[in-house]
Amino acid sequence: MRKKSLFTFLSAVLAIGLSFSGSVSADAIDAFNDSWQGKALDLQRGLDNNAPIKDNNILGTHNTYNSEVYRACNFSVGCRYLDPQQKYSIKDQLRMGARFIELDVHWTAKMESLFSYPKRLLLCHGVCSLNDKYATEGFNEIKDWLNDSGNSDEVIILYIEDASDGHHSDLYNQLNDRFGAKIYASGGCGSIPDSLTKAQVLAAGKQVILWKDGGCSSNNSMANQAFTGLGNVGRIWEDATTLGSIAELFDGGIDSITASEVREGFATGANIINLDDLVMDDGRIEAAIWSWNVNEPNNASNEDCAAQTGSGRWNDANCNNNYAYACEDRNGNWAVPNATTGTWSNGDTVCADLGGSFQFSVPTNSQANQVLKAAKEAEGYDTVWLNYDDRSTEGDWAGVQLDIFVDQQNLAFKSAHNKYLVAENNGGGDVNANRSAIGSWETFNMQLLSAGSCITHGSQIAVSSQAGYYLRAGSGGDLDAKASAIGSWERFTLINHSSTSSCLLSGQVISLQSVHNQYVVAESDGNANANRSAIGSWEKFTVKF
User: Fold this and answer.
1) What gap in Å lies between CA 302 and CA 183, rounded to an integer?
2) Helix 366-378 crosses helix 259-267 at what angle (to 10 degrees)?
3) Is 496 part of any domain?
4) CATH, residue 525
5) Sign (positive/negative) of CA torsion 62, 63, 69, 72?
């Protein structure tokens, strides 16, 4: 807990009638974002777009609204935000890189005139003041940031700590009047899915993942829009007013999360770290940088390919240099082939030669970067190539995303008869559509075979059982799961009836077209075939992640 002195508190109380701006020059934030730190963090946020959010490293703020910028006292309505946990406005915290923000919303009295004290949705916690800000004021700041075209590729998690006393219709309307078109719908009460990526959110034309605690809403609109839990997205936070839940990662007895603890937290698997007093000059934001080395990438001597150096941090290097290669499999295991070095362009071939599902790769979080560093050192290498480059456009480090990030693992196919596809014995035999519940045999992985950052309408895909057997559509219209490798009969075109543009999402309705121009069908007797020349209801499946 960060201690506040009695003198500081009393000084604030005695400041009745005063208002404290506490704002920082916008130029200072612009300068930070143009610095090496700001640019490195921006590249990092793009690097993990296709990785599950539960594996991302995300900086955020705790009690985002409780800022000294909004602190004020008034004889009529009292004081607000006397014990602030932030120094900047909500919008400025977003501009500084906070991608998880928290707004505590209470249904409580607000003085609107000398004789009018109606209840409104306000931003406050504990004992609210008649002088606290409207929730809409905070929502407006988020709207302004979202409407900046320079932020169109960013995704945020908006946490509403819900004390709205059931006034979810008001809450829903206030949010949606401002940026409802940018909220990624949950589709019903539930936690953020393990498979959800920022790329999927952006592909749906959205930017905000809304998490509202307090359980499912009786308001259907709110229930379909907000997630009711983080799921396996982990979060730790400090609290300048009460002890935050940081014991999961750090030993107790500390006053705040320090820069070294931010660095250590991400390196050991922390997902979201929410800070009080987010500022640009105390080293904690810089500590969140785990990828690029100081003042890298710098494009010295035509350096267009990324390499992890001995420190574990990255430099851009000339793509014709000779280094070892970073290879990763579907389970997140890293390997560096022994006695194999070469130019960057050989990475795909070298990693594929390892067999299994190994591919030329690049870490997307600090913990994976540390695992790669250990694998590299075990083979006696100082530097390894990463599957990350700006060869096409200088400064555009889009990189080559791996199938393990763009594919969809652990999904089921529900037929029009409310039965699930099953690979009998987990593969090696027949495929049927006669199961009433999802088990391991009814769970499949989908692999993207065509170009793209995720599976969309028209993608070429392959579908495999958990044991690694691929669905195969025979020339005679039969369907089985006997193939151990992908050939032409194991390739399908995905038809997405729910969306022609978004990444494949849970709950969408799809069809699978074989290389023989026939569609997979779930027969009414529970059989599954691939022998239909047109799509009807039996040729449609609802995917469930």
Assistant:
1) 41
2) 70
3) yes
4) 2.80.10.50
5) negative
98 and 247 together in one domain: yes
Contact by Cβ (8 Å): 433, 422:
yes
CA 276 to CA 483: how far, in whole Å? 54
Closest CA to 104 of 59, 156, 65: 65
pLDDT in 10s for each residue of the chain, 545 residues: 333 333 333 334 433 333 434 444 558 999 999 999 999 999 999 999 889 999 999 999 999 999 999 999 987 667 899 889 999 999 999 999 999 999 999 999 999 988 899 999 999 987 899 999 999 999 999 999 999 988 988 999 999 999 999 999 999 999 999 999 999 999 899 999 998 999 888 878 899 999 999 999 999 999 999 999 999 999 998 875 543 343 444 433 335 899 999 999 999 999 999 999 999 999 999 999 999 999 999 988 789 999 999 999 999 999 999 999 999 998 899 999 998 999 999 999 999 999 888 999 999 999 999 999 999 999 999 999 999 999 888 888 864 333 333 566 778 999 999 999 999 999 999 999 999 999 889 999 898 888 766 788 999 999 999 888 999 999 999 999 999 889 999 999 999 999 887 778 778 899 999 999 999 999 999 999 999 999 999 999 999 87
Q: Identify whether 395 is part of a domain.
A: no
Would you state the structure tokens that stand for residue 152, as one six-digit string?
């169109």
Angle in degrees, 0-180, between the axes of helices 26-34 and 36-47, rounded to the nearest 10? 70
- Type of residue at 377: E
146 contacts 207 by C-beta, under 8 angstroms? yes
Same domain assignment for residues 513 and 473: yes
Q: Alpha helix locations (H) across 255-412?
A: 259-267, 284-287, 347-352, 366-378, 403-406
Rounded to the nearest 10 degrees, the angle between the axes of helix 168-179 and helix 135-146 is 30
Instruction: Say if CB 157 and CB 206 are below 8 A apart.
Output: no
pTM: 0.72
DSSP reduced 3-state for 37: helix
164 shares a domain with 95: yes
| Cα distances (Å, whole numbers) of residue 396 to 44, 305, 393 | 12, 11, 5
| Same domain (yes/no): 365, 253 | no
| CA distances in angstroms from 300 to 303, 318, 319, listed in the order given | 6, 8, 12
CA dihedral sign of residues 286, 287, 292, 295:
positive
Report in angstroms the alpha-carbon separations of 519 from 12, 256, 504. 70, 58, 19
- For residues 363 and 372, the answer to whether their CB atoms sit within 8 Å is yes
CA distance 10 to 8: 6
CATH number of the structural domain spanning residue 103: 3.20.20
Do residues 157 and 59 touch, judged by C-beta distance below 8 A? no
In the chain, the number of structural domains is 3
Between the two ends of the chain, the Cα-to-Cα distance in Å is 40
* Domain carrying residue 365: 303-389
